[in-house]
Specification:
- With 350 residues, the chain is of the alpha/beta class.
- The protein is built from 10 helices and 14 strands.
- The strands form 3 sheets. A 6-stranded parallel sheet has the order 5-2-1-6-7-8, sandwiched between helices. Strands 10-9-11-14-13-12 form a 6-stranded mixed sheet. A two-stranded antiparallel ribbon has the order 3-4.
- Strand 3 and strand 4 form a beta hairpin.
- The longest helix has 20 residues.
- The radius of gyration is 21 Å and the shape is globular.
- The structure holds 3-amino-D-alanine.
- 3-amino-D-alanine binds next to helix 4.
Length: 350
């Protein structure tokens, strides 16, 4: 029989994209059960062209599930993912609750697909969207050149902060549209007023060097996630990583400027070959023709787009590149779906 799938968090920003993706990919599922908070129960959503009623998250809703995708806040995952696993489901969790648990693999199928098969807790974790938006490209280069250090700056879309982030940017854009704002200190902040949404500063006509919560020594939680997750996915526990995470006025698609240092000397030509052939990567690198990835072009697509590949002028072992990836697709829902499909294939293998 085809496995039963539960989508827990079906009504959220990522859940919505997940339902689209489930309708677009080869259909490996039997029943697809849509689960959300009690507040959303009774809503009808379309998946695989069928209207399906959302049920409230409960022990009963997790009965008989083979694979459960969780796209809910950390505390809800921390509580409910182990319950689903205890009932026999393999959980693919997109929260931060289990990513650093040594008994939970952190999986990006193009980079470490094998890791998904060893899951002592019955849980497989999906990385954070910022890590995911670059790691497929970085992993391909690492496989050839041997990565020794990453220095990255992110340009993160507001949908990374959920629907509230998107609503806030749209409201702020309305407040500044057609004005001459953006020429005097604080003028945008005053115009935006209370419509800051989940961000600590206006994001319209601005960039905000902050994502996540404050951690020790001035780092943001988002920056520490990039470091810890890149190390775990690549299997490089001592990799040197520095990240600066920045929110920009983009609805969806995270970009990163990446400085990657390797054990071996690099050439742009070889890096181009590797990236052009890497599954899940599209090379778009011809600045003479105005070709490089931008979030406005990458949004809604599945691959990681890479351009601006340069060898460091001062270090023959380092590359600089610019990557864009849809933070809701490969950055979240698509990677979750890919992992879930590999588990489904395992469960139905003869
Ligand atoms: C963000 N990476 O973009 C976070 C969401 N998981 O805010």
């Amino acid at each position: 029989a085809r496995p039963t799938l539960a989508v827990v968090g079906a009504t959220g920003a990522v859940g919505t994209v997940l339902l689209e993706i489930l309708s677009q990919r080869a259909d490996v599922w039997g029943e697809i059960r849509l689960v959300a908070s009690a507040r959303s129960a009774g809503r009808k959503l379309t998946v695989r062209g069928e209207e399906t009623e959302v049920v409230a998250l409960s022990e009963e809703a997790l009965e008989g599930v083979d694979v459960a995708m969780f796209d809910v806040p950390d505390d809800i995952s921390a509580r409910w993912a182990p319950i689903a696993a205890a009932k026999g489901a393999v959980v693919v969790d997109n929260s931060a609750a289990f990513r650093m648990d040594p008994d939970v693999p952190l999986v990006v199928p193009e980079v470490n697909a094998h890791a998904a098969r060893v899951r002592p807790r019955g849980i497989v974790a999906n990385p954070n969207c910022t890590t995911l938006s670059m790691i497929v490209a970085v992993g391909a280069l690492h496989a050839e050149f041997g990565l020794s250090e990453l220095v990255v700056a992110s340009y993160q879309a507001v949908s990374g902060a959920g629907k509230a982030g998107v609503d806030a940017l749209r409201a702020q854009l309305t407040a500044v549209a057609g004005t001459e704002l953006g020429t005097q200190p604080g003028d945008v902040r005053r115009a935006v007023g209370d419509a800051m949404g989940p961000f600590p500063a206006p994001v319209a006509l601005n960039v905000v060097p902050w994502a996540g919560s404050l951690m020790a020594d001035g780092w943001s939680s988002e920056e520490l996630k990039v470091r810890a997750e890149a190390r775990k996915i690549l299997g490089l526990p001592d990799l040197r990583v520095s990240a600066t995470c920045v929110r920009v006025p983009v609805i969806t698609t995270h970009s990163l400027s990446v400085h990657a240092r390797f054990e071996n000397e690099v050439t742009v030509e070889r890096a181009h070959e590797i990236l052009a052939n890497a599954p899940g990567v599209v090379l778009c690198d011809s600045p003479a023709d105005g070709e490089f990835p931008t979030p406005a072009d990458a949004v809604g697509t599945d691959p990681t787009w890479v351009g601006r590949v340069r060898r460091s002028l001062d270090d023959p072992r380092a590359l600089d590149l610019f990557v864009c990836g849809d933070n809701l697709r490969k950055g979240a829902a698509l990677n979750t779906a890919q992992i879930a499909e590999s588990v489904a294939a395992e469960l139905t293998a003869p």
